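Summary for the steering committee. One of the milestones for this cycle was to obtain a three-dimensional model of the protein with LLP bound, which we needed before selecting residues for the alanine scan. The sequence and ligand used are listed below.
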Amino acid sequence: MVAKISSSLLPDNTTIHEDGMVAFAGIRADDLAKEYGTPLFVYDEAHIRQRCREAVQAFPDGVSYATKAFLCKAMARLAYEEGMGLDVATIGEAFVAIEAGVPAAKLTMHGNNKSYEELQYAMENGIGKIVIDSFDEIAKIEQLFSNGGSPIQALIRITPGVEAHTHEYISTGEEDSKFGFTVSTGLAEKAIDKASNLKAIELIGIHAHIGSQVFTQESFRKSTETLADLSNSFSLPELSVGGGLGVPYLNNETSISISEWGAIVGKVCEDRGVTARVTAEPGRSIVGSAAVTLYTVGTIKKLDGIRTYVAVDGGMHDNPRPALYGSGYETFLARSAASARQMPVTLVGKHCESGDVLVRDGAVPEDITVGDLLATPVTGAYGQSMGSNYNKVLRPAVVFVNSGQAELVVRREELTDLLNTDMG
Ligand code: LLP
């Protein structure tokens, strides 16, 4: 017997109707499924706005939303309206943000291997800042500048040599990393010196991002200490601590809040006498728990003494995280959201491989049946954004719900979308 789904994993404005059906911002899950079909990403807009506001308060000198976590035009506009800048990691993310109406000056461009095209796009469109990741990138910027490009404001990404204690694929702050300039080997200082002496670059600060889904407060502290010392010794105006704050995915997990993270960073900077503005760029902690994915159960296989498989109409194309990182999720039946879950199940998708698992160790009420609506919470970050068309599956729709209203912000793909780029 597994306890009912913890309300702390659900979007802020989740309620349960008398008949047991879960509702998001006042709209019943079954009505959403009827209107928009499944699989469906449902985002609680007020929840996202609250997290943006919390971030703006926690980092009053400036905070950007890391769009890689989830990006569509509505999301870009929302973060901008709430006073955030936008962190973009490719020309594609920059393009979507600009198309949404976000001024280019509010964007920060990342990337460990920015192309000429991306750097030129940043210069030509007046992207606010870029975060420099390599000496080759500096050379590319010089070349573009000497060909008539405009100078660009930049931070240098440093590698502080800090273990983030997260999955190795999303850990980025240790010395053996493809990202940034290592501090301990003196490369970071060299890069700062080099960039400060170029007409092509207006060096405004340093940046570090130690990884994602980080729960260890000590890692944030250590990384900020390294940044603070380096920032003080060069007297640069900005110090960015990146993103990375972890969020709970399972009933028994807890994490610190965005405000608490801001306080940890603020305290280190205060103790070290930092005068630079202190900025950050959270992604997951803004949108992760704002969304649930709704699926329809298609088949249930009880393998006696082995396992029960519940297969739904989605899979690794809408959430590749379990397959990629072994990430754990919860699941619950939309029509009995407040019930205990007696039956252990493995929730799988419809793809042609056994790794297509959405929830390895799930549990559902015993009366689950084909046609039921299942929900997986905390799917707001790195699900839709890492989705694919594997097996030529159509990507799900995304709706924003707010005060009883649903807005379709990304429509479901149609079969003809599969041929958009096919030159056949
Ligand atoms: N800043 C930089 C430079 C980053 O590379 C990232 C994430 C962020 C900020 C935002 O980090 P967040 O606050 O969201 O943790 N696909 C993986 C996560 C990859 C994160 C990549 N960089 C996952 O699904 O867990």
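Key point for the committee: Residues 66, 68-69, 87, 110, 170, 209, 212-213, 242-245, 281-285, 321, 325, 381-382, 386 surround LLP (CB under 6 Å).
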